[in-house]
């Protein structure tokens, strides 16, 4: 199984066509969206790139391949625009090798995760990382639209052998092989 993970779109369309091309190029089976689909916030400086209709149409075009988690900025009204279900807090993807837990990150994250021997992937922070702490792996794909800490926009690719965080320029940001 090949999966592309994105997070924290916040209604910004700018890099979604890059994601569409990478999804096709990498021959992905699923697109996982880790929340914060439409709301940009009142103080955001990228309002000229804000396009809810475009983002809605992009996401709905993957309605048979998307798994989506509700983010802290996603309202019930916004999610009614979607032609796919949205997981409220926590989901699990079972692959041949492991279970991968997905969430937005505002509730479950590295600082309050109680499971052991698990993989937790979450957004919310807008900063990409892969961290192995004791028996757990924590992954954040960063934000495809509003990256923080000097990062470029990023996404995560999984292929049952490795996790790779790429930036939109196709550079590898971090990589983890799975045993």
* Mean of residue pLDDT values: 93
Unreliable stretches covering 5 or more consecutive residues: none
The first-level CATH class is given as Alpha Beta
SSE order: EHEHEHEEEEEEEEE
The strand count comes to 12
What would you give as the CATH superfamily?
A: Metallo-dependent phosphatases
**Euclidean distance between termini CA atoms:** 16 Å
Which structural class should the secondary elements be placed in? alpha/beta
Tell me about the biggest sheet?
7 strands, mixed
CATH topology: Purple Acid Phosphatase, chain A, domain 2
- How many independent structural domains? 1
CATH architecture: 4-Layer Sandwich
In percent, how much strand structure appears in the residues? 25-35%
Number of helical segments with 4 or more residues:
3
Gyration radius over CA:
15 Å
Q: What is the percent of helical residues?
A: 10-25%
Query: Which geometry do the CA atoms define?
Result: globular
Strand order of the largest sheet: 4-3-2-1-10-11-12
Structure characterization notes:
The protein has helices at residues 16-25, 52-60, 76-79; strands at 3-6, 30-33, 66-69, 86-87, 90-94, 99-103, 119-122, 128-133, 136-141, 154-158, 162-167, 172-177. The longest helix is centred in the N-terminal third of the chain and has 10 residues, at 16-25. A 7-stranded mixed β-sheet has the order 4-3-2-1-10-11-12, with helices on one face. A 5-stranded mixed β-sheet has the order 5-6-7-9-8, with no helix packed on it. It has 3 helices and 12 strands. The chain starts with a strand and ends with a strand. The protein has 179 residues and is an alpha/beta fold. It has a single domain (3-177), classed as 4-Layer Sandwich (Purple Acid Phosphatase, chain A, domain 2).
């Amino acid at each position: 199984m090949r999966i592309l993970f994105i997070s924290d779109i916040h209604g910004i369309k700018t890099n979604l066509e890059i994601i569409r091309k990478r999804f096709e190029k990498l021959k992905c089976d699923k697109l996982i969206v880790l929340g914060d689909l439409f709301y940009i916030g009142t103080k955001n400086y990228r309002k000229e790139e804000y396009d809810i209709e475009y983002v809605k149409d992009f996401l709905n075009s993957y309605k048979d391949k998307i798994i989506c988690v509700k983010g802290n900025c996603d309202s019930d009204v916004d999610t009614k625009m979607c032609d796919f279900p949205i997981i409220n807090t926590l989901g699990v993807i079972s692959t041949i090798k492991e279970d991968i837990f997905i969430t937005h990150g505002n509730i479950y994250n590295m600082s309050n995760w109680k499971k052991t021997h698990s993989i937790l992937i979450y957004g919310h922070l807008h900063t990409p990382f892969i961290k192995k702490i004791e028996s757990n792996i924590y992954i954040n794909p960063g934000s495809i639209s509003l990256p923080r800490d000097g990062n470029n926009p990023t996404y995560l690719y999984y292929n049952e052998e490795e996790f790779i965080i790429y930036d939109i320029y196709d550079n590898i940001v971090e990589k983890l092989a799975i045993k």
